[in-house]
Amino acid sequence: MSKFDLIIIGGGPAGYVAAERASDGGMSVALFDMNKLGGVCLNEGCIPTKTMLYSAKLLDGAVHGAPYGVIAENARLDHQAVMKRKDKVVKILSAGLAFKMKAKNVTVIYGKAAISGKTDFGFAVTSDGQIYEARKLLIASGSQSVTPPIEGIAESLASRYAITSREALAMTAIPERLAVIGGGVIGLELACYFNAAGSKVTVVEMLDKIAGPMEDEISTILLGSLKKRGVDFRLGAKVTRAERYEGVTIERDGEPAEILPADAILAAVGRKPRSDGLELDSIGVRTERGSVVTDKYMQTGVPGVYAAGDVTGKVMLAHAASREAEAAVANMLGGSETVNYGAIPSVIYTTPEAASVGETLKSAAERGLPANETKLSMRFSGRYVAENEGGDGICKVVTDGSGRVIGTHIIGSCASEIIASAVMMIESRMPVSDLKRVVFPHPTVGEILRESLFQIREDDL
Questions:
Q1: Mean of pLDDT values over 245-270
Q2: Which one is catalytic: 64, 79, 409, 442?
Q3: How many CB atoms lie within 10 A of CB 160?
Q4: What is the pTM of this model?
Q5: Which residue of 110, 245, 397, 453 has the fewest CB atoms within a 10 Å radius of its CB?
């Protein structure tokens, strides 16, 4: 029987980061994964999607290159070539991850793992008939796509007429008409790619806005930009039926509105924690609607058992999962780290990119926090103007009553990179008066953050 200081169930961004940090801390580690290291993010999510979207971005530059003096005739997307490169990128990163685990002396075990109870040593985990023991456990089993409660959707998924994001990233042919159910991050990113690849894309969203919790004006600008690129939207609409060869039936305010023809349906209504089959009850770990319940130190109600990532249902983002895992391991080693969820950024990698972190003016008001907001056009950045003909991006910075940044919301080129600086502003809690003395390189699009700080009136601090 193999014994370890720590067993981790799940090899995604929470699991493999935890394995690395625990090994660095002197722990012996076993990492279990059912399929491939990297989880959904590396194999079926973040990385494949961004690889495909970069190809779409290059195409966009070619098609709309005339104002920049670039003339490209008959530019098109070779979907087969895109998919081939996507597979290559995933393979390279997967190999690198496997090498890192080996270098850190992490024992990687492929197969389904389930908790089989407590032992004198700690906890027992069973996989393929073998029993493993560890003093501590980390549950990092991730999440899975949600199947919406729509008539006919189960049959459509079974026949592959309807697909989830997993199948969308492996499609060998581009559908002529694609109906996307859900206007959140996954739906919008894939809508952006398939639109560039030649599909007639229509996004159906129950809310009256896209991009979920993204700041309202950022969401509105993104909506307008995607419409200009040819993506159609049905907002405030609900899909009630999916039927092969016919498409989806949409209703508004409880009344049938239209039948939307589609050659394929993408169900992108979100994800849910994957905790079934882990036998958490065998050691008394509590769950709520499938989410593993933890305290602020990432520990469950069972001493020695922790959870991190999507399975906790807190913030379903890869970088949040990694940070939760780091905190969990630090606490296993005697620390008392917590995660600042007010400084977890969110990005939509469409063209243009949208990024957000912390409070909006609206959310601050709902929480009773005194706050002020400054809004600045991205055209105050010289590099943005040089690289974006007619761009309408904006940057919003939210400050609290003590003159500290508590939120930032950006739409425009490089938003995904700029937001990291805003995260550090929030984490550091440096007052705006001190942040103004920080020097940004020129010319960069990121200078928009510094310019925004100088728009804040002293009376507002």
A1: 92
A2: 442
A3: 11
A4: 0.95
A5: 245
